[in-house]
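tool_call: predict_structure(chain=1)
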Amino acid sequence: MNPGREIRYIDFHTHHSRGSDDTIAIVNLMAGENVPADFSANTLFSAGIHPWFITEENSLQLLTELVLTAAHPHVVLIGEAGFDRLKGARMEVQYSAFINQAAMAGELNKPMVIHCVRGWEELRRACREVKPDRPWIIHGFRGSGKLAATLDDEGFWFSLGKRGITPEILGVISRERILLETDDTGEPIADVYRHFADKAGCDEETASGIIRNNFNTLFNFRI
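tool_result:
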């Protein structure tokens, strides 16, 4: 990572953007994907087994491939891993794959980025079982304020896109555990920051400082 001039934006979870002089981007990879040889400065990566793509037949093979992908020094997160009741394998298969990824995250001392659609009980159960030392960050959260408050009480972090940034959500989750993302929208991360600043009732410089401090805390970086 080569910060260059001051970092203004951090795109915590993206499938499209890349890092630049004023932006750090964490690009999501699937198990078995190679870190691009020509990745730009200020680009980091997450790598995981998405619940949409797990089957009973391929889960062990994907886990083996993930070991290779996650070994790269610029892969700083495991995931996105998680649970989806609308798409993917049986919950038992998803749960086993998740626990294996959580174990890998623990061995590598890396946080996890979480995909969760109607699988909140499974996520909580996994958290109780694993008792992770590093944070689990729920990406793209768009649930209710009540659910957000409960998850916040249980220590989860949140990575929010535009649709998840509402006064209700911001009013119940810890500001010290918020990150921002573009996911697969292709929108500029600057737009997400502006939206966050507006809904949080602060200026853009303050919003940038909040996210930068949280990112530094998560990874023990100093940017």
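agent: The chain has one domain: 9-219. Proceeding to next step.
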